[in-house]
Design goal:
With about 90 residues, the protein is mainly alpha-helical. The chain has helices at about 1-15, 15-25, 30-40, 45-65, 65-70, 75-80. Helix 1 packs across helix 2.
Length: about 90
């Protein structure tokens, strides 16, 4: 539930200039969490940690060579659909 509260808080920050200004003045996580709670969002420290970790993993996959192995090559997909498999020659 609190991760949902973090998403809601971030959405509110994006849409409200005054709240954005208040967030920019926060010097640490404790101030940010207090501000979120002050505005009715039940955000906890673990939410910030989880969000940072998820973001780091996402960035890693975007730059990793491993990511490419999970994507199918469109030209190979078309070939496999249009070309029937050939039986081995003996």
């Amino acid at each position: 539930m609190s991760r949902e509260a973090l998403r809601d808080f971030l959405r509110a920050v994006e849409h409200h200039q005054g709240l954005r200004r208040d967030v920019a003045q926060c010097r640490d996580d404790d101030q940010l969490l207090a501000l979120a709670r002050c505005h009715g969002f039940n955000v906890i420290q673990q939410d910030l940690y989880d969000d940072a970790r998820e973001s780091a993993i996402t960035r890693w996959f975007k730059t990793s060579r491993i990511q490419r192995s999970f994507q199918s090559n469109p030209s190979q997909s078309r070939l496999s659909k249009s070309t029937p498999p050939q039986s081995p020659k003996t």
